[in-house]
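User: PIH1D1/2/3 CS-like domain-containing protein. Structure?
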Amino acid sequence: MECLGVSSLQNLQALSALLSTQQDDDDDDDEDSKNVTAWAQLNPGNIGTPPKKDKEVSGAYVKTNSKDIWGEEEVPEGIQYGDLCDTRPQPEYDILLKQSVGTEDLFLGLSGKDPSSICCEAMLVKIKLPDTKATDVVLDVKEKFLDLRTPKYKLGLHLPHPIHSQEGKAQFFSEREELEVTLLLNRPMDVINMQ
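Assistant: Predicted structure:
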């Protein structure tokens, strides 16, 4: 514990020396550069313990066998839907989390479910689309992104939780002019949390 305190003190002193103001006179620069100690020449990257270098990686780009310019992991999901020239407004929407609750949960508490979001199984996205028909709606759902297009509206929504993109349903209510998209959540710890 004491080593940590000494190290932290030295780190703070080094950071203080870096952030202190120095005069910009040409004459003083020569004298300052001669009098500066080694610890004052540190930069913010030198503060703290140095990172471990298990494996040296060359700066050269390692190309895969594919003819693609970028890999899927390099491009954020949903970036292809961002169009600055598209001036359609974003519709109003709400995101609700849902869970299946039975009488054994409600009255007896046998399943161990609680009202927290960790016990939810599905996500409901309600999107208000005034003056829109169901045939005009184009919907594309990915694991972390929902893309909705109509002639009047555009919605590119980054979802708060990953979902099963193939296991969902959408329903358009003409009387309310609202689209409801139900998406099943895909969280890695659901097997443990739902037990």
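The longest helix spans residues 2-19. The longest strand covers residues 163-173.
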